[in-house]
Design brief:
Chain A: Keywords: Membrane, Transmembrane, Transmembrane helix. The structure holds two protein chains of two kinds. Chain A is an all-alpha fold. Helix content of chain A is 83%, strand content 0%. Chain B has a single domain, classed as 3-Layer(aba) Sandwich (Rossmann fold), CATH 3.40.50. Chain B is globular and about 60 Å long. The chains are: A mainly alpha, B alpha/beta. Chains A and B meet through helix 5 of A and helix 2 and helix 3 of B.
Chain lengths: 245, 254
């Protein structure tokens, strides 16, 4: 029953988020701030992880291809497929659930504990719209993060495979182009948009409806990370089933 | 003026307010006092529209709040200023941005005009020169004054204060009390203050509602509260040693 209550509350929160819009000029500056905090602020860690995970994927594939009948271009093919289909959109989103998600939960949660949300409501401001809507809009730029992650992942794979002497550069590029299905990119970006929405709203829900003090803000951040990851994984499965099977 | 008639509010079946009747008068500092858990904050939140009462009427200048349309409620909220117990200042904004916030949200004035008004209000609460500081860089007393400045910047008709001097030293608490009283008279507003500080009652109690277990147990002003023989009130008023000793001295004719 508790889960049903929370799901209902989450959808009511979404409904409230798109009602009684905040003044445009204020909203604009809030959106720019959120883009800076959520998108630009995540670029460093995403770039670092993408490059090295891409490199490790290529290394692992190369090290496990001992059969001379299997072409070396498979290293690039495998790296491309795993990065585009799963690593960049899903794995990075799980990491973002930890980074961006806990930031959203703790910032809204602290505002809740210190009565800042009550202050907004008393002033006649729709606190849901003021706090959550700019985050949703800012997260529309999340696919750019994932695109950069894809690029850097493949660059990492190229660096490890070519510089490590496992695959010649021309064979690697050939492998990258082999059997490329453009719809895989469409699939990856469709789920990225869905993950972006989840990353903005599920942590916001946990922050907005938390009760208690500073300790509970920490607990809410942890719970938020767990549930955001769970929702991302379930959505990933559902979207993959719908679009690829 | 705000009138509360037969107000009832319950949580999970437990009644917290049990039929409160009281009139909060204009241009006066109206105090709601009582022990923790007596229903003071719930009463305040009902008046602010944050809680919906099960029964009863809250009238703003004669008009029941329940009959306000959505637009009228929005307009009313622009006429309300609120000072929260912890200040509730926005951490990510400077003092100036905090005070300017209601102006930015509800007026179409130029930034320059808003800045002028903020300067005026900060001067009124003796905080000029602190515009660029963050809330974390100023003391608790200063945070309360910023909160007062933010509450009055839009020239409200009603000012609500939830324990405005809690956590402050007695001297700063008196400064805050007096500031609120001066502003109430100067701006001709209806001020409602929740407190359990008897010093505040002594300083600024012009119209007092004493709540006990969700019931209005006594009403009067600061001159009456120290003369009453009502045991419910005297138990609360003379609970501190200092006031107890003053009472004994008075009884001895000292």
């Amino acid at each position: 029953m508790n889960y049903l209550h929370s799901i209902g509350e989450y959808f009511l929160m979404l409904k409230g988020t798109f009602r009684r819009m905040t003044k445009t000029s204020v909203l604009r500056s809030l959106i720019f701030k959120e883009i800076d905090d959520l998108i630009v602020g995540s670029m460093g860690i995403v770039s670092f992880l993408s490059f090295f995970i891409g490199a490790v994927v290529a290394l692992q594939t190369a090290l496990n291809l001992n059969n001379p009948l299997i072409p070396k271009s498979l290293v690039a093919y495998a790296a491309r497929q795993s990065i585009i289909l799963e690593f960049a959109p899903t794995f990075i989103s799980i990491i973002m659930a930890g980074k961006v998600g806990s930031y959203i939960t703790s910032s809204i949660g602290s505002m809740n504990v210190t009565e800042q949300i009550d202050a907004l409501e008393v002033m006649g401001i729709n606190s849901l719209n003021y706090l959550i809507f700019p985050k949703i809009i800012a997260m529309l730029f999340y696919p750019f993060v994932i695109a950069i992650s894809m690029f850097l992942g493949i660059l990492g794979a190229y660096t490890a495979a070519v510089m490590g002497g496992f695959v010649p550069p021309d064979i690697f590029v050939q492998g990258l182009q082999e059997d490329f299905i453009p719809f895989h990119l469409v699939y990856a970006f469709i789920k990225t948009f869905l993950f972006a929405f989840i990353l903005a709203t599920v942590p916001a829900y946990h922050g907005y409806y938390m009760k208690g003090g500073a300790l509970e803000v920490g607990e809410a951040s942890t719970t938020s990370f767990v549930w955001t990851s769970v929702v991302i994984i379930i959505t990933n499965y559902a979207v993959t089933q719908l679009l690829l099977s | 003026m705000i009138e509360v008639e037969n107000l009832h509010k319950a949580f999970d079946g437990e009644e917290v307010l049990k039929g409160i009747d009281f009139t909060f008068e204009k241009s006066k500092t109206n105090l709601i006092i009582g022990q923790s858990g007596s229903g003071k904050s719930v009463l305040l939140k009902c008046m602010l529209g944050l809680f919906t009462p099960e029964k009863g009427v809250i009238k703003y200048d004669g008009k029941p709040y329940s009959r306000f349309t959505e637009d009228e409620r929005k307009d009313l909220s622009k006429e309300i200023g609120m000072v929260f117990q912890g200040g509730a200042l926005f951490d990510s904004m400077t003092v100036e941005e905090n005070v300017m916030f209601p102006l930015k949200m509800f007026t179409k004035k130029q930034h320059k005009e808003n800045k002028k008004r903020v300067k005026e209000v900060l001067k009124r609460v003796n905080l000029d020169g602190n515009e660029k500081k963050m809330p974390s860089e100023i003391s608790g007393g200063m945070q309360k004054r910023v909160s007062i400045a933010r509450a009055i910047v839009n020239r409200p008709k009603y000012l609500f204060c939830d324990e405005p001097n809690s956590g402050l030293d007695p001297k700063t608490a008196t400064v805050i009390d007096n500031l609120i009283q001066e502003i109430t008279h100067e701006y001709d507003i209806t001020t409602i203050i929740i407190t359990h500080d008897m010093n505040s009652v002594l300083e600024i109690g012009e119209n007092i509602a004493f709540l006990k277990d969700g019931v209005l147990a006594w009403k009067g002003d600061k001159s009456q509260i120290f003369k009453t023989d009502d045991e419910t009130v005297t138990d609360f008023v003379y609970s501190s040693n200092l006031f107890q000793k003053v009472r004994e001295a008075q009884q001895k004719g000292l």
